């Protein structure tokens, strides 16, 4: 199935062009590395970035996208509300959405969650360990009981999101915090997976285990092919009493 | 406890002033009847309507409101985005919100759900029977196994909302549809209850069983007094490795 | 993927041998019809029945089963506790389980749910309409917005099960009841789907739409390949303070 | 309300009589300390232990119990299946159940969960920090953002329980693990709260913050007074077609 799924990898793509430190880690941009990881795992991928026309998310691109991945950090506000609405609509119609790391504050995610999506954070080069709490979930396929990331930005609870439909990963941090770091949602007919790891200054998206999780999440989030609901004024299906 | 809870009953209050048919059912407005039912059940109630200054929802009123009930139908768009944001913020801080009938399409509910909140509907004077599917839930306290409403507007699935945290009621309709008619959510620190019955042309809010459900929902949705989360840059609680 | 999944279709297989009325509908047994429907949809299927040695559910059979479907009605008590424990253990390890109609009262389902699994029922040749309430769920793939079954046994709420992790279908009945008729659970690493339709006197398992749902459920419930958790005494992963 | 709730505090009560180390911490038994903490917070409490006749859980005692708390560790197997069934039945009818620490392996909890309830563990005098992940939940009332326990037994994920209906607390451990340490369930009409802290060698049940959580949980788990469902053969509520 995976060979036919079409993935669009979206990236803000600013840090990589402005910061030598980030460019050293992701010289072609975070999107290039994520796309390569997914391409290797059998998906048809394309990329799109903030500074492309329409942010690279034209009607045509979205219509041809099964799953969209989203990475953004410092320019969330520059994403046009018009395009955000277009993305959100496609999710409700069934397109999958993978929300990565600092995209917890992106407009599409906040709009789909209905909450502030705030959290605690700290940049201190500390250890993170993601524990699989739901080993029967397809997003945990082929993953070890925990993923250890030697240097990470910390995100800590309270993470202000709705309780996830499925909680797949929970993170431990060296500095004393925990975080629900793999969260599944359904909104409309679309599936959403928030996955925490992936700061711009760490080579996290080069890791095989992280790419495996992303690939699992793409398969899980792909449109399922259920009925398109009719909304509006409906005739009765049974005879009514007078 | 209930004697100390402060409830603000909000109503669009247009149908009752424009339509003789509606005015006959709710001469002082839907809000007056809901407020009276809650007042009788021991809550401190006030009312507020669309055409009040700031829709009656000033900072002061909301700060002094434990639970807000919302009824609207044809003028959702006239509710100022500024006031909607104020309401949504208060919910996230802990204020309870009861979303009634056609307020499924209200701005605060859509914003907090992140979905279209669409559904099927029909005005055909048909019978509705709300079944309690979660009899252990506090919102079902004192309620019979089902509530029968002889004449109702129909709402049918697919109801495009996130799967509720708790599903308390499911409705049967004479014309052949079903509907998740009592849905609980938590968003931020606030609790939200959507309750389906209550069209403007039927005297549904005069019913004791319906008012009992609303009163139960007020108690359930009242602020729980948990910790106010800190969001932002956080110092480590443990010593970090060098 | 489906071509490699191995399905064992279990049936009590008593009604069909004792009752002419049932034998007329299912001359080779309910299991034969279900197995054929799944075989046609690309699964490797075998059948097993109560009166086989070890009820046909030897260690070897279960070890080689990805998904087990279960139909029973009047002889639940004759299923050996030893075999029930074997089935339950395999589910916890990751084997999928489809629980069909009157198997709501089967030992494996009651043991995995921890509740009475009781409900209301009536045999009155009445109409059932299953509404898809979660159109984005993979079990709803290719299904219409509702499935109409002209003559069915009624099952009504309160259905005494834990709130499902995902609620895919809700049924409307002509006689005035509703029922959560497509319920998803995870227990251990195993996925469980309860699906309501399928009384022994109605040819429901010959329907394409019903078989499509069963096939979708087999794919959804198949083992996902996640980590096998370690349980027991664990060494620390971090250095502890003295 | 709390002044009228009747709580039965059950304890295995073996460690305290056999081990000097434990007796030094809990000279009158763990149950005495829990009962005192709840009594001080306004509940009517009684205690019951394994070696009492019928384990102290007669029909009369259970009929008069709103919420039962359960602590056991090394003698789970000595609890009579007959009494377990009695407890489980009462929970399904609406009695609340608080499952404490090592009672994750108790017969009533395993029976109500339907899973193995296994986990990782370690006795190494390490630090635990329970984070509130759902600050709007009534069980978090008056609690700080985290509870720090200086010396605790470690319990680590995977915790083999069904995904909780509400997850209130998640624990961080010094040795590198996480744990869902405050888990809410509804089974039948009864509410169940699993709370992790409380090893027999640590004075954890003397802590005000821990007792506050237990008191909150008692109020949350108390019978809600909803309808007692009818199960069985039901007459139609609507006229059926011929």
Q: How is this fold's topology laid out?
A:
The structure is a homotetramer.
Chain A: E1 6-11, H1 15-18, H2 20-25, H3 30-40, E2 44-49, H4 59-63, E3 67-71, H5 81-93, E4 96-100, H6 107-113, E5 120-132, E6 146-156, E7 166-173, E8 178-187, E9 190-195, H7 208-221, E10 232-233
Parallel strand pairs in A: 1-2, 1-3, 3-4, 4-9
Antiparallel strand pairs in A: 5-6, 5-7, 7-8, 8-9
Quick one: biggest sheet of chain A?
Answer: 9 strands, mixed
- Report the span from N to C terminus of chain A: 52 Å
Structural class of chain A: alpha/beta
- Round the mean pLDDT of chain A to the nearest integer and report it: 97
Key attributes of the depicted protein:
homotetramer; alpha/beta; 9-stranded mixed sheet; globular
What do these coordinates show?
Four copies of one chain form a homotetramer. With 242 residues, chain A is of the alpha/beta class. Chain A has a domain of 153 residues: Rossmann fold (3-Layer(aba) Sandwich). In chain A, 25% of the residues lie in helices and 30% in strands. A nine-stranded mixed beta sheet of chain A has the order 2-1-3-4-9-8-7-5-6. In chain A, α5 packs across α6. Chain A starts with 5 loop residues before the first strand and ends in a 9-residue tail after the last strand. At the A-B interface, α6, β5, β8 and β10 of A face α6, β5, β8 and β10 of B.
Would you kindly provide a brief summary of this structure?
Chain A is an alpha/beta fold.
């Amino acid at each position: 199935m995976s060979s036919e799924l079409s993935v669009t990898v979206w990236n803000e793509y600013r840090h990589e062009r402005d910061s030598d430190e980030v460019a050293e880690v992701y010289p072609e941009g975070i999107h290039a590395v994520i796309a390569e990881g997914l391409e290797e795992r059998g998906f048809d991928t394309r990329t799109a970035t903030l500074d492309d026309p329409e942010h690279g998310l034209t009607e045509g691109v979205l219509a041809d996208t099964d799953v969209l991945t989203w990475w953004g950090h410092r320019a969330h506000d520059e994403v046009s509300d018009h395009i955000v609405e277009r993305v959100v609509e496609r999710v409700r119609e069934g397109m999958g959405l993978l929300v990565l790391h600092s995209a917890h504050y992106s407009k599409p995610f906040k709009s789909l969650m209905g909450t502030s999506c705030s959290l605690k954070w700290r940049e201190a080069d500390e250890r993170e360990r993601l524990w699989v709490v739901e080993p029967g979930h397809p997003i945990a396929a082929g993953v070890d009981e925990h993923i250890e990331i030697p240097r990470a930005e910390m995100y800590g609870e309270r993470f202000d999101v709705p309780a996830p439909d499925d909680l797949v990963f929970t993170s431990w941090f060296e500095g004393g915090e925990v975080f629900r770091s793999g969260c599944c949602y359904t909104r409309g007919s679309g599936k959403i997976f928030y996955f925490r790891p992936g700061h711009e200054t760490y080579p996290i998206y080069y890791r095989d285990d992280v790419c495996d999780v992303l690939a699992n999440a793409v398969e899980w989030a792909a449109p399922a092919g259920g009925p398109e609901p009719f909304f509006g004024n409906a005739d009765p299906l049974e005879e009514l009493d007078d």
